Amino acid sequence: MESQHSDQLSADEPQPDPPHSPYEVFSSRFPPIVLALNGLIAFLASNDRSWGALGLALFIGPIFNLTLGVAACLLIPLSRQKDPAYPVFKHVLLAFGLPLIGTILCGFAILSMDLHGC
Question: What percent of the chain is predicted at pLDDT more than 90?
Answer without folding.
Answer: 71
